[in-house]
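pinned: reference chain
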Amino acid sequence: SCVGLRNLLQGLSFCVRYYFRHNHLQTTCLYSKIKPKKCHILDCSGSTCTHMTVPPGSILPWRFFSCKEGTKVPSKRKQNTSITSSELSYKNLLKSEQENWNDISARYKAMITRIKEKLEELHKYTFNSGSPRIRFGENVYFEENGCIFLSKADDADEGNVDILFSTEDLGFSDAFIQRIRISPDQRYMAISLKSENSEEATCIIVKLGHFPVVEKVIPNVFSFEWATNDVLYYTSQKNLKCQNVFMTTFTNQKHTKLVYTEQDARFFVDIYCTKDRRFLTINSNSKTTSEVWLVDCRHPFKLPTLVQARTKGIIYHIEHRNDELYILTTYGEPAEYKLMKAPVASSGMENWQLVYALEEKTKLVDLEMFSDHCIMFLKNAGHLYLSVISFVSHSVQSIKLPTWACEFELESHPEHTTGTCYFQLTSPVHPPKHFAYSFKENNLIEQAVQEVPIITNCHTTRLLAKSKDETLVPITVFHNMNSKELHRKPLLVHVYGAYGIDLNMSFKEEKLMLIEEGWILAYCHVRGGGELGLSWHKDGCQHNKLKGLHDLKACIMLLHELGFSQPKYTALAAASAGGVLAGALCNTDPELIRAMVLQAPFVDVLNTMMKTHLPLTIEEQEEWGNPLAHEKCMKYIKSYCPYQNIKTQCYPSVFITAYENDQRIPLTGILQYVQKLRKAALDHASRTSKKGNRIPNIILDIQANGSHCDSSWEDSLNEVCSLYCTHPQQVG
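pinned: its structure tokens
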């Protein structure tokens, strides 16, 4: 996404920038441990909301991207400190790229102004389209513009609210609210704040009342939950790892102590509270294996107890109801998620009993437990539906959701006895709509109709492309119904295909704008992602990674065959680990696309996976393999690695956004990739003398602010602008 535009946007108000940065209040539930979130998450009180789907056992949205060492940006030195030649070369290269981008972006000032105006127009319709609420008895907590508000559930007067917390008033104006937890008696509120430029968050505990008071500040916190009214458990994060669990009290005798430490570098620890608040679960997960310890909330000072010792290849997560543990697990055949149960007193795997198994090629997106029901949010063949399990009648009710919907977002309702489940549905071009499912009435209710007239002209199509090995690969396509001659329209293809994560298909204003401009949007759900369940991920990782590349090629070819654009009007977009497949296609089949747009791309798999000193490389061996231990693995990674396979040929235009503060994708690697790609493209141009032979634009925008794939108001503009920079003949 093109960011030299930041200076043009300084006049925009903070609230508008904040909205685009965080795009709604978000909430968390049990399945959030398996379900990825957007880079900016507001994970509230008892449940989580997210936007892609997380790989088995993984729980951290910002860990799904190839994790690599921090960017080595030259720091200020004392006068007598020498600078090495490599550092000087890096500094000069960085300066050269920044000057190049400043020169290019200056050409598009008029276009930027038009885009800004259009997005602000769309923003009028979508700003209040619905931020999830935390429903706590008669109280409703919600966040807006960096403030946390409290209102009454039945209060129709939207102006009658209390402000409980403000980031700006407390000097945190450059941070966003990531997670909220309200204590059971609503006397305390724990909030995590995170800045764009840091991986670590700060937890602030506020004592509520007529005059809320900051009680404690805890740095470097990842997850946290209230065990009781005045006992908080939290995990600490350091160097992208989270392996320690602490307990802190807010009684008369305040103290903090270490409760649990994970010794295995492949595992990452987080905390979850069961819906009935009976247990806190300490969850230790690798990409393929998990282990859970229970903290009894009635006795929070007792040592945690083990549910089931970790078993290689078995993932499980815990909920609780009526003295029984409900276990979401991959145990048994087939190795897909299933719901099982066991007595609390004898929780070993030998006592697990099947409650519900998913149908073949069905993706479990989320799960929420209630006193008499369990509701599962499922995805099958691109369609979303609910499965409602009644523990009273022992029946299962299936409800198909609107065909346009691509994403769920659960709203938080911490009381497990409630008779209604609230959630939102969205798509890349449909702002979130509120829905409620009533267990008593057994019906689905759309709570409000949001008037965004532009989206009524958007058509959704679902296709299946036949890959090289005959596997059918889903594609979701959006286009304006009024568009004529689709084969002449520009096409933006999206791909990810890693870590078992679904493509992010949540709403974004810039996607809606592209539809109005006549673009076609296509989302290729290739193997390596999670759209068709755990087997879909397994079939596209490690020694199967090339299958994802074959899937992507088949998808783009089918789109062209069916009359959705053509190669000279096609752009390919990917972020982070999605850069592996996008970059690989750019090497193997550059004639299929005219432009490629990458955000913080992972483009040098081989060299990165050979550096075991990096903080997350060892745990990522379960996704990419271990080239140091197996020569066959090294050769296989080398066969598709984007950086390793650049060659002298005609490349599409390329636009890359990188971040100076990215701790996961080293800026040095991206700089080397861009230099090598430019040289190959120029060498090809110099060797060919065909009339009209073009030299592709290969542009690198290095953002001084932000960290790995962090979203911001500028990004909403920049993604669109980058398409103009690389593909200008099709828009304007």
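why pinned: The chain has twelve helices and 36 strands. The first strand starts at residue 43 and ends at 44.
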